[in-house]
Recover the amino acids of this structure.
């Protein structure tokens, strides 16, 4: 599955917490409610549960480095600009495409994860496109289609299902792959 990438942030007892997640689902509009799946092994989880609040920071397409930093160990906020949410005290990351500040309504066991249900108490939006996660890599939505077409063309070449030593006819190849001609280029 392809998913958007978000960083969940919280603040508890003067400590800033954050982790990268790929499982955020809008559940309802009224009241605004989101579901976030956090790994039980996450060092951020205990802080979110104790604070009973968090911010979902939806990352923009140029923030792959932010996703990697929050996915790792160590000081996650080094070099990261943010402002503090007045409703939750949690960090809202600079450059995020959008953010939803939430109060934790419930949490439940979900195997290796804990499902957090948060009620939105504030939100921000900005212009841009989201960062995505697919097959272990961060990318852009429009680039996923191009990468898929590239993989299909590469497979045809390696299986010698296209003429060797001859020019490829882009329109024919696009039709064969049910792709857009500009993705085949």
């Amino acid at each position: 599955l392809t998913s958007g990438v978000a960083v969940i942030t919280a603040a508890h007892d003067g400590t800033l917490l954050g982790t990268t997640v790929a499982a955020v689902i809008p559940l309802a509009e009224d009241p605004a409610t989101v579901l976030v799946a956090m790994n039980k092994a996450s060092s951020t989880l205990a802080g979110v549960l104790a604070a009973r609040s968090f911010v979902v920071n939806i990352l923009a397409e140029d923030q792959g480095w932010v996703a990697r930093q929050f996915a790792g160990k160590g000081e996650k906020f080094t070099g990261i600009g943010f402002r503090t949410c007045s409703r939750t005290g949690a960090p809202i990351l600079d450059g995020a495409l959008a953010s939803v500040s939430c109060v934790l309504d419930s949490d439940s066991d979900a195997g290796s994860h804990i499902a957090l249900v948060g009620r939105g108490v504030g939100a921000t939006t900005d212009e841009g496109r989201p960062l995505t996660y697919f097959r272990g890599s961060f990318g852009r939505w429009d680039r996923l289609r191009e990468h898929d077409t590239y993989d299909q063309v590469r497979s045809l070449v390696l299986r010698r299902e296209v003429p060797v030593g001859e020019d490829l006819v882009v329109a024919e190849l696009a039709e064969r792959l049910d792709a857009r001609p500009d993705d085949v280029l």
In short: The CA atoms of residues 82 and 93 lie 4 Å apart. The two ends are 25 Å apart (CA to CA). The mean pLDDT is 89.
